[in-house]
Amino acid sequence: MRAFLMVMLVATPSLMLHDVGPDATQVVVLVAFFAAALTFFEYSATYPGLVEFRDAPPFNRIRFVSLFATVFLMTVVVRGDSGQSTATHLVEAIGTLIGQSIDFPYSPVRLVVLMLPESSSVQDIIMLRTAAGMAYLISLLSLAVFLIIMRASNWPNGGTKFNVWVNLPMFDPTTGGDVVTRLEREARVNLALGFLLPFLTPVIVNAASGAFGSFSMANQHTLIWTLSAWAFLPASLFMRGIAMQRVAGMIAEQRLKQGGGKVEQALQPA
Fold this sequence. Notes:
single chain, 270 residues, mainly alpha, 9 helices
């Protein structure tokens, strides 16, 4: 089921947009099968190799729902066909309201709009602002939902055992000094990147425009995935930083219980 959902995530823009060429279809099929295979083997293996917090729901479920909602609603906004439904008008109205409310100088939405070349039409600017506003709203909502669930259910200790090393397969506890210090350092790095990435991404795109050409609204697939990544990655980094800080606190608390208050002497990595 997880593999099938990944296929649906990758294929959603191609299924909803008009005039999808055969080359784009082949690329989408290839990426969808790769994502499905990666998800299937990661979740069927005893010990995962890439997926973090595999056995600590709903961390990855929130991230998937957030990304799927972003891609789906971006596709609804970008498609903009003449036969718009009430739901389409509602999505566009919400995106326009959010985009206009946070479109002030040096804001992430303003920087995204500035990626367009000077020759862009007013309609392109409005569409990009609407899509950016909707994507930013979804990322903030996903982060808020994660924080509420973490507080309400005492995540990740919600009545089940939490294996730190299985849920953090990319984290090596035997190198680099104290585990808690390293987790807290990585948490701070993720939080800093999550805060800076919405501002840095448009700057990087503009800097690369000289070599790869200006950002264009013509390629709808590129627009959808660029905006989705722009909104999803910072929220995902924020969630990862908060989760790693939570795990560090759990380990420190366990050390206090087992070491009689001597945090620095308990559960040191071998």
